[in-house]
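Final report, Chapter 2: Outcomes

The project's central promise was a pipeline that accepts a single protein chain and returns its three-dimensional structure in a standardized token representation, suitable for archiving and comparison. That pipeline is now operational. To close this chapter, we reproduce one record exactly as it appears in the project archive, with the input sequence first and the structure output second.
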Amino acid sequence: MTTTGQITTCLSETVHALVCHLGLEMEDIADLDHIVTASGQVCWEAITFYLRTLDNEEHDLNYKESVRLLGPVCKAVHLYLQSLNAKQFNDQYGIWFTWTNNTELFIDVFEAIKISQPTTIALYLMKLTACLERTLGNVFLLMGNDCPFLLRDLLASQELATMFGQDVMNVLRVFLGSPQSLNLRNILWHGFAAPAEIPPMYTSMLLLLTAGLGQILQKGSMPLHRPYFRLTQLEELAVFPDINEEAIALAEDFIGKSDFVVEIMTPYWREAVAAYRNQRYADCVILLLPQLETGLRKLFTIVNNCPSRILTAESTMLYTTFDEMLAKYLENDDTNQLPTALGDPIMEILWDLLNHQEGPRIRDHLSHGELDLKLFPKKMASHIVALAIVLLHRCCKNGNEIAMENECLRVIISSTSSYCSRFHPIGRLKQQLRHCVGSLRKWDEIPGPSIEQVSESPWSEYWSQRTLATSGSLMEEIVSYIVKRLKPVYNEELNTSQLLAEEQLHLVIKLLANSIHTLYCSRTLLEVVALLRKVAFQCLTVSEQVTNGAATRQQQWLSKSLRSRQRQNYLRMLASVQYLHSVFSLLTLLVTVELLKAQIKGEMDSSEKHSYLKFLKSLVQYAENMVTYTSPEKNKWGETWDLTEKMLLKVKQFYNQFFNGITS
């Protein structure tokens, strides 16, 4: 991985001038007495006085001129805050941060300003913008319903203008709200700004403005704070071994050797490693994620031969961010070469970590202030550090030689080789099917009265007849069709006559061990998977209802608290268990086979697609009806038999048509 020259900035010429120089252009320092009163009250009118608008019909903000004129105000605020000690700041402003529900964070921001270390200030500016966005969203919800996802849309909302005043919101928009503005939040979180490129006075200004917003809110309603998002997928995400001191030392060594690192960003990498060592796991990840994006952007520009994309875009263009870098095609419809350069396993890890809707989407949740930083899990930080090591190694000139000599590195790298997505819809379906198998295997443990008690029921005779019927030709024919359908994707010989319920479940587990390609699936495949997931979800629901219902009824039977009608219904349930277990084992196998078939099947013509989706929808309808009939409220066991026979006939008919060439 090589570049045509040393990267001195990742900010375009226009953005660099706006962020790094324009606010410092005027040598004046504003009169602090006009900005903050002796009691610490923010004088908003004195600040909004420096806003300028364009001479157009919309009277849009003139961001450049506003930045230039607000520069002396920011200088004055920065010098003022630096003159305070921690106690003075806390006494004067601590109360005004309570509206954020995170006063401690803003005290830490003040401490960072006092230390004046560029990397630390940049870190705390990222944390400040994330918390401020989350808190402004809470204020929005005092009046509105659906909080905007993007910060720029939130700051431009009428709801916040009503709560704080339009001029106040315009001040915030100069710092955070638009690609034409300083846009501090985005250039930091997307990894464009080096530590020393953002003047510290902007962090000081945003700190004071946050207190000023709290002062405005004291006169009205205080927001309710939405609960933090909980990262519950850590076990599923686990790929790498735990990161120990040897691995951390390895990462530290790679930082100075790997072309993945943009040299001007090195302080972020060093501080991230230090944060992990000091068990500051949220800080580690906040620092690392933008650098993973920067490193991938650098690789992206090399393999796609577009060196200018390493820079921030101008306001009329989109930045090159994770979304574009992980996509199949470039903006000009050329094929993106980054997936080829990284390989499918790394791409799937990145998609799982960042993009899939059911995954942790860690950068989104962190940058929007949706996670409790004090409780940030070590496992997530360890995962991201290990991924960083893999990418650093991938772009290191002598990486293979280092791996040959380092067992720790070999283990980390080998962990990625067979990775399959956990959070793509296909990965979620595979997990659902594993849960179905686990639940269905518990049916063997379903308790019941003694055989003598069951045999006294008139339903035992019906149960025997039904069992004989369903274990006959209809079930065997469907199994034989499924085995035929499986042949193109499964090489082992299967004996149809021996493929009973338990063997079917065992086969499901074997089939699910197969790797299934998930990158850039067709829309048709995603439609099929969505329907299969609905079937699997309802199958699991039925299974759990049966096992839970049987346990409850058993307790009631033993305590003799069941009325006569309830006893009869309980015996009907028990009479259905073997039959339904066979059917739902078969259905679980069917869903698994259809998943495997779908991923190798090309695009269907409209008629074939319509017929196939109609078949899958009929399975969804059957499974949904079975959830209703097996629920504690309904307990309609006779109806489940009739419904199931109709479903089995439909399945047989569909496969019969398929193999006779009618539907494909």
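Archive annotation: The chain has a mean pLDDT of 90.
This record, like all others produced under the grant, will remain available to the consortium after the project formally closes.
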